[in-house]
Amino acid sequence: xxxxxxxxxxxxxxxxxxxxxxxxxxxxxxxxxxxxxxxxxxxxxxxxxxxxxxxxxxxxxxxxxxxxxxxxxxxxxxxxxxxxxxxxxxxxxxxxxxxxxxxxxxxxxxxxxxxxxxxxxxxxxxxxxxxxxxxxxxxxxxxxxxxxxxxxxxxxxxxxxxxxxxxxxxxxxxxxxxxxxxxxxxxxxxxxxxxxxxxxxxxxxxxxxxxxxxxxxxxxxxxxxxxxxxxxxxxxxxxxxxxxxxxxxxxxxxxxxxxxxxxxxxxxxxxxxxxxxxxxxxxxxxxxxxxxxxxxxxxxxxxxxxxxxxxxxxxxxxxxxxxxxxxxxxxxxxxxxxxxxxxxxxxxxxxxxxxxxxxxxxxxxxxxxxxxxxxxxxxxxxxxxxxxxxxxxxxxxxxxxxxxxxxxxxxxxxxxxxxxxxxxxxxxxxxxxxxxxxxxxxxxxxxxxxxxxxxx
Length: 456
Ligand SMILES: *[C@@H]1O[C@H](CO)[C@@H](O)[C@H](O)[C@H]1NC(C)=O
Ligand SMILES: *[C@@H]1O[C@H](CO)[C@@H](O)[C@H](O)[C@H]1NC(C)=O
Ligand SMILES: *[C@@H]1O[C@H](CO)[C@@H](O)[C@H](O)[C@H]1NC(C)=O
Ligand SMILES: *[C@@H]1O[C@H](CO)[C@@H](O)[C@H](O)[C@H]1NC(C)=O
Ligand SMILES: *[C@@H]1O[C@H](CO)[C@@H](O)[C@H](O)[C@H]1NC(C)=O
Prior knowledge:
Layout lengths: L1 H5 L5 H36 L20 E4 L6 H14 L4 E2 L29 E2 L7 H7 L5 E6 L2 H11 L5 H4 L6 H6 L1 H4 L13 H5 L11 H14 L2 E4 L3 H12 L13 E2 L9 H10 L1 H21 L1 H22 L7 E3 L19 E4 L11 H10 L3 H26 L38
Helix pairs in contact: 5-12
């Protein structure tokens, strides 16, 4: 609007109004141009009273929260969450804390986490999401002090059935059971279970163990269970629940001020339907009493998830879930040649970067393959997204470590040339210290799906 500026002072007020209107018009158009993709879902949800649902970046909006610690529990859809966080980190140039090679792709699980397990090229981190046994003091030492803590739980019955089949050949407590029978194990668990042997954490209160608790406290120790629940409540801003994965993601999106695009996912690390077993009510209740602390955790955080959802408003939540599912369908169709991808067993997957880890000959963990003609009419960026969406945990971890190490070395090499007179910062030998954990306003909820760790 230069003409307006040239006018004499008398018309100044008028001109300012015009400038203002022009500014509004330009802002609106640029908003439309930049956020065209989001606009339809943003508007739709806005009319349904979801106050926090808006596009990023928009003026005056809270920036996306980027410091996140996700405690990856076993067999809870947590691999799907990890993949989502890996992709978010890559898109936003964030640093993901990854394990040193000696720890494999997990932080030396089942040992209690310490910051010595973290690869120096992945420091200081924004995000941590690989399997570990939680240790609050060490996590606070590693992560920035405004880190938001999240985890995921799964209904104890289906979770234990999944653990029993997945770790059947690894966990001694399960291997001892005649005929690999879940019923036989639950009939007399003390006959097969040894609390102190290798992999015993897969055989009792696995969620409690992963969260840093004592899996072997008896059900009668109510004070212990209550104290442990309260501690998890204090540390975690959101406890997702696998059975309500999409609803949990809606809460996550609001908690972190993220976009709908940031929570798109493809389910990973699942068994074939034929390796799943449905439970009789009797069996489910035996599982609950054998895993009594996990059962209390689940009930507590499932209730808290639904309280948080009701605060957001059922109509708003339902709307966002629908928008998420529609966006997901569109993405899947564009990635997988106009239709949903077919699940395949590992042996059928041609691209070895996409083959999921297999726990044993008895359970088939399915994955996806890319159509061979994916590259036709696709930008390399789009191809990359499609590939990463379905990349299994072990391979994605390796890819991330490679790119982050490269970035680390580049920045390390650049420094001497640019500022040769200053003392170079050596490779960090001790970790930065951070203050107390900051709790966010939101309470706890929970969602979980399970992803297994390649069992070591
Ligand atoms: C990430 O880094 C790349 C390369 O340095 C840069 O081009 C890109 O704009 C950055 N993206 C974000 C979201 O910061
Ligand atoms: C194991 O299976 C065999 C054959 O199916 C059966 O005869 C035997 O009774 C089973 N054992 C137990 C403890 O269920
Ligand atoms: C979770 O909580 C909701 C609300 O109280 C309840 O309807 C649902 O049955 C619970 N889910 C499970 C699997 O217990
Ligand atoms: C890829 O190939 C399949 C069958 O070979 C075909 O049906 C599909 O339309 C192709 N997709 C693209 C994007 O060319
Ligand atoms: C968090 O860290 C920043 C800088 O590292 C510091 O200024 C701030 O006071 C810390 N906040 C808390 C609550 O410890």
